[in-house]
Each structure stands twice: as structure tokens, then as C-alpha cells.
Write a structure and sequence with these properties.
single chain, alpha/beta, six-stranded parallel β-sheet, globular, binds (3R,4R)-3,4-dihydroxy-4-(hydroxymethyl)oxolan-2-one
Length: 344
């Protein structure tokens, strides 16, 4: 199998894990890195044996023979690089959130569609093993017809230590984590017909820390499967059950109850019994232990996108698909601002 050659744009905190996850897969090879601060790209290239490093993205694209690029820069530069790839007819993968506004995201999708260029979003949350296992039970009809779900992602984990730019975002938790949680909501429970959201800005008030955006959000959806789905997100809540970065899920159905609880315990309750088993993620030596669950999910996410790039399968998180998630993210801000229910 001839490996697909790709370049990574952006060598910040996340790229090290993304690159390590790519190196778990056969048939793909990172041949170049771009970063504005070249010294950072140099360090990553040395650590991972990437042969070329650039401080100018156009120069990289001029000189390298590539099959795709993987954009892992800050959200504000995603659009610029996706358009660059589209102009050159180069398939492109972009980190979540796709763009800082829905309009920009729509233009990115339109540009790639017009150029006939595959465009995928690196949306890894739905690829977490515990979430996939719950999805399987749900799809097997083990709790009958689900009618209500609660998605709980609440902690006091200091995310700003590794990702200081998160502090500066005017729109914080709904773009950073809401993009994942609302994508999981769509993946598990269907498309939203209505959405209502409330937010809080707790960190600023309680700790005098300069976190610009909202750090708590609650979103309620009615989905096209007739379900009521609530998503609770917080980086400002200290709780007994918090275990960053686990997502807890509680799903009620006509024939039973499914729970994904702390420490990867998956419980299925029916009239007859409750069955429990642990569904931990695979552990990779390169993962940051504090992020092991998320870092492990990068591998199947990349595998899915790689198969699509090879024409061997469908990507789940295409740009087109992710627009539906972003409509929920920005719909949530609109709802929180107006106090109105929105129809995404
Ligand atoms: O940026 C976020 C993500 O995508 O996963 C967790 C995170 O690193 C902090 O919220």
C-alpha cells in the first residue's frame, strides 16, 4: 500500500498527540510541518522523525508533494488554510471547532465543495470507546425506544494550563466542548429540531481569573427521534464524581436504562437485571495520562478519515456533517442571548 503523504499545519499542544496517533496507522506518512514559530515545528519534527519544516505555508505547499493536509492551528486561522488547500485541490482535515462563526464555516465547506476537494473535521469525541460501546447497545435496541438523555460533562479541570488561548475566547465552553458534546448528541440521539440554552460565567466571578467566555452551559434539545436531550457542560464546577475528561451519559428508554458513569462503567438496566462492565479506552504510551481517553479517540477518528481519503469508506465527520453540529453551537449562543428557543 503506497502511504498517503501529508503535512501538519500548526505544532502547538495538540499536534504531538495527533501526530503520534497518525503513526499508529499503516498507509500514511507525515512528510512536513508548518508552524509560524519554526523552532516549535523543529522540536516536533525531531521528536517524530518528520523530514521537513517550514515557517511559510505557501512554500510548504509549493515544495512538497502531498495527498492531504491536517490543520491543527488555532481556530482563527482554519479558514485561511482550508481555502489555501481548496485552491490547490488538496484534501484537507481541520480540527474542531471548524471556524469562529457559522458564516465562515459555511464558506469553507462551499469552497471545498466547489473545488471538489474532500473536507473533513477532526471531531474525535464520538470516537471514544465508552461512547461507541453505549452507541452499540442503543442501536441494538437494548433499552427499547429511547425518549430522554442527559449528557454530563462537568469538572474543575484547569484546561487553561495546557491551552492558555482558551482563556481568551469570547465564546469558550460551547465552542471548545459544546462542539464535542453536541456532536455526540447528534451521533447518539439524532438531529435537533429545537434548542434552548442558558450559560454562566462562573470562573470570573468566583476566582477573579480572567476567563473571557462563558464556562458553564446547559443545552436542551428536542430531536427528530422525539427525544429530549440535555447537555450539561462546565469547567467551573467541583464535584465528587468529576473525572476529566470523561463524559457521563444517562439514557432512558421504553424498555430500560443505559448509563455511562465514572471510571468507564457502562450499566444496562432492564426489567430483568442490571448488567455492568467497564469499557476503558486503549492506553497508548504517547498519550498524556490526564487526556488518555481523548488521545486514544484520535486513533479511530484518524482511521475513519484515512479510509475515506483512500476511497475505502465514508467519513463520519465531513465538513458538511459538522456544519450541523456548528449550527447547534451557534444556535446555543443565540438562544442564551435571547432567551428564546431556536430551530437550528
Ligand atoms: O480543547 C478541548 C478538547 O477538544 O478536548 C478537551 C480540551 O482539550 C479542553 O477542553
Amino acid at each position: 500500500m503506497t502511504p498517503l503523504r501529508f503535512a501538519i499545519f500548526g505544532t502547538g499542544f495538540w499536534s504531538r498527540f495527533q501526530l503520534a496517533a497518525w503513526q499508529q496507522l499503516e498507509g500514511v506518512e507525515c512528510v512536513a510541518l508548518y508552524n509560524r514559530t519554526v523552532a516549535k515545528a523543529d522540536a516536533l519534527a525531531q521528536a517524530f522523525g518528520v523530514p521537513a519544516v517550514y515557517g511559510d505555508p505557501e512554500e510548504l505547499l509549493d515544495k512538497e508533494r502531498l495527498d492531504f493536509i491536517d490543520i491543527i492551528t488555532d481556530v482563527d486561522t482554519h479558514s485561511q488554510f482550508v481555502h489555501m488547500a481548496a485552491q490547490r485541490g488538496l484534501p484537507v482535515i481541520c480540527q474542531k471547532p471548524m471556524a469562529p462563526t457559522l458564516a465562515e464555516a459555511e464558506q469553507m465547506v462551499a469552497a471545498c465543495r466547489a473545488a471538489g476537494v474532500p473536507f473533513f473535521i477532526h471531531e474525535n469525541w464520538r470516537w471514544q470507546r465508552p461512547i461507541r460501546e453505549l452507541h452499540k447497545l442503543l442501536n441494538e435496541g437494548r433499552i427499547g425506544t429511547p425518549f430522554r438523555a442527559r449528557i454530563h460533562y462537568v469538572s474543575s479541570f484547569p484546561v487553561f494550563a495546557n491551552q492558555p488561548f482558551l482563556r481568551e475566547l469570547d465564546q469558550f465552553i460551547l465552542t471548545d466542548i459544546g462542539s464535542h458534546i453536541l456532536d455526540v448528541a447528534r451521533f447518539l440521539f439524532g438531529e435537533a429540531q429545537t434548542l434552548y440554552c442558558q450559560t454562566h460565567h462562573v470562573f470570573r466571578d468566583l476566582k477573579q481569573e480572567p476567563v473571557k467566555g462563558e464556562d458553564v452551559a446547559t443545552v436542551m434539545l428536542k430531536t427528530d427521534r422525539g427525544m429530549t436531550v440535555t447537555g450539561e457542560m462546565s469547567y467551573a464546577s467541583r464535584t465528587e464524581i468529576e473525572r476529566f475528561p470523561e463524559t457521563y451519559l444517562y439514557v432512558e428508554g421504553s424498555e430500560g436504562f443505559l448509563e455511562l458513569g465514572p471510571d468507564y462503567w457502562l450499566r444496562l438496566t432492564t426489567e430483568k437485571e442490571t448488567c455492568s462492565r467497564r469499557v476503558p479506552p486503549p492506553l497508548y504510551p504517547w498519550a498524556d495520562p490526564a487526556y488518555a481517553l481523548i488521545h486514544a479517540s484520535i486513533v479511530p477518528c484518524n482511521a475513519n478519515l484515512l479510509a475515506a481519503l483512500r476511497g475505502e469508506g465514508q467519513a463520519e465527520t465531513t465538513g458538511e456533517d459538522n456544519l450541523k453540529t456548528l449550527k447547534l453551537v451557534f444556535g446555543a449562543y443565540a438562544s442564551a442571548a435571547t432567551g428564546q428557543v431556536v430551530h437550528p
